[in-house]
Each structure stands twice: as C-alpha cells, then as structure tokens.
C-alpha cells in the first residue's frame, strides 16, 4: 500500500500531458501499386521521426516508416508531415496508423481508378442546364439570359441556354466552364484509349460532354471584345434546394459581362485544345469553329481589363491573368505552329508569379508542363 501510494504521488506530481490533436488524410480513392503514395499527417504537436504503420486487412504490419521533418503550418495546425509509403506495392486493403489514430480503409490496386472517368462524366451530365438530355432532371432555365448587365453598348437578347450548373446551385460561370472543358480535352488528348469504348458499354462519351461545354463558351463570346462571365447571381442562394425545372427564379436570370484578360485567356485555351481534339477525331467543322473563336478571344484579351479585385458579384474571380494567357498561347502554338504564340506563352509565364495548387484560378503548373 505504501509503495502504491508513493507511485501514485509521483504520477500526480507530473505535469499533465495533453493528447495531441492529430488528423490523417489518405487518398480515399486509393493508390496504384507503382505510384507515389503519401498521406498527410496534421498535428498541433511535433511528430518528427514518429513511427507510422500501414496495417493490412489481417491486422498485420505491412509497412512501417518515420515521419520526416515538419513541412510547416497547415490550416489550423502548426505541423504537418508527409508519410511516404511508396515502396509498398502489394495490392490489398490497408489502414495507416500514427500513435493512436488510424485511418479508414484504403486500397492499393491497379484498377482503383477505372470507375472515375464515367462517374465524373455522369456528374457533368447531371449538371447540364437547358433542354440538354440531362440525367436526373428535366429541361430547365430555357430563358437564359433574361437581361445583360455590364455592357451598356450592346443592344439585343443574348442566348446563354445550356452549359453546366455550378457546384450545388444553378449559377453558371465562364471561368469554371473553360477550366472544365480544358481538362476534358487534356484527358482525352493524353489517353484517348481510355474513352474509346464508352459508347459501346453504356458510359458517358467524353467528346459529347466536351462539345456541350465548348458550345456554351462560344455562346458566351457574344460579340467582338464581348464575353459573358456569369449567369444568375447570389439570389440563387436565397430560395433553398429545388430541382432545376422547379426553379422559381427561372424567369429572372441575368447575365453579366465582367470579363477580364483571365476570362478571355481561359476560354481561348479551352477552345484551342478542344479544336485540336476535334480535328483529331474528324469533326473538322466544329474544330475550325473552335480554332477561330480561340484566336479571336486571345487577340481580344489584349484590350480587355486586367484581372483584379473581386467585384462582389462573381464567386469566381481570378486576380492574375498571365497563367491564363500563357495557357491560351501555348495551346494556340500547338494548334497553329505559329511561333508568335510560343514566344508569347514563354513571356506570359515568365512574368507570372509562382503558383500553388493547379486549379481554375492557377494554371501555371499546366503551362509549365505543356511548354
């Protein structure tokens, strides 16, 4: 009893050690066997050299490693680390453990990404606006746009039916549409074989979806030096969830022209690469149309407003435009072999500030790869 009391007294006199707040992020899709495999470990305490484990579905340790040097603050955490287990190549189901935290099961396998192209393309088909054979909803927003804001010199109606709804609402944006079209075209160009059997096995055709998006971009370019940037405003967010065909705002959906060089550059890049794709598949009429639109948009960017601060109406604004213009120029160089575009692509990207994650607002990494 005396010994127990003595030990208890020592333990009570020690300072309390708070349990570290720890979060681990793995690729929820999984990893291919020979790919780079990393997880991100975020913590409010230092964990350098802490051992991490990869546990298989029989609760055996399949891999162990040490967390490297702190990669710096990340979000609300002062520390984050990259747990690298790339040398684990055996297919199977695994969990990653650091201290007492364990992730959900993730997989390593050669077929983990096979369902992704069709799943993503089906999502775009659901997001279709207009009378467009969308999945899971009826024709909608057949009066886009009911007015045009931001172009006092333009007289007449503007047809912006079609295109894709944005993420979780029914607004439509030129920047994100251009980015989506560009990535669809790039995916097809890099690996067309992945998509060639889509029509035969009931999956969505990437070329059909790409053409649908590009056709809306062409509509958005409604005149010389004129590019619509958005359909509908934040009023969309005030009426709650509803099917698009039941949208009470369908008769009041303005379009905006707040185009900057970034808008012109992004649209030009998407249309240039789209043109190359459709030339390669034999749709020369549409390919030529895309090429002409791309060249016009790129030239018109020279007199467009520079990218700048958020104007308060658009959820997607790009504070820089050099990456957009560089991407348009390099794709036009591939398309036309005109050395002017190559020279200007290098000039634009050299003057751009260093970027971060590749996204609709930062395409510098893609430009570097293409150059």
What does this structure look like?
The chain is an alpha+beta fold and 371 residues long. It has helices at residues 2-13, 116-126, 174-190, 206-220, 261-281, 284-300, 322-336, 339-351, 364-370; strands spanning 22-25, 38-43, 51-56, 61-66, 79-84, 92-98, 101-102, 106-108, 147-149, 172-173, 230-231, 254-256. Helix content is 35%, strand content 13%.
Primary descriptors:
single chain; 371 residues; alpha+beta; five-stranded antiparallel sheet; four-stranded mixed sheet; 9 helices; 12 strands; disordered N terminus
SSE layout and pairings?
Blueprint (H helix, E strand, L loop, with lengths): L1 H12 L8 E4 L12 E6 L7 E6 L4 E6 L12 E6 L7 E7 L2 E2 L3 E3 L7 H11 L20 E3 L22 E2 H17 L15 H15 L9 E2 L22 E3 L4 H21 L2 H17 L21 H15 L2 H13 L12 H7 L1
Parallel strand pairs: 9-12
Antiparallel strand pairs: 1-2, 2-5, 3-4, 3-6, 6-7, 6-8, 10-11, 11-12
Helix pairs in contact: 3-4, 3-5, 4-5, 5-6, 5-7, 6-7, 7-8, 7-9
Q: What count of helical segments does DSSP give?
A: 9
Share of helix among residues?
25-40%
Please give the radius of gyration in angstroms: 26 Å
Biggest sheet layout:
5 strands, antiparallel
Mean pLDDT: 91
Find the count of extended strands (DSSP E, 2+ residues).
12
Enumerate the spans where pLDDT stays under 50 for 5 or more consecutive residues: 1-18
What would a concise description of this structure say?
The protein has 9 helices and 12 strands. By secondary structure, the protein is α+β, with helices and mostly antiparallel strands. The radius of gyration is 26 Å and the shape is globular.
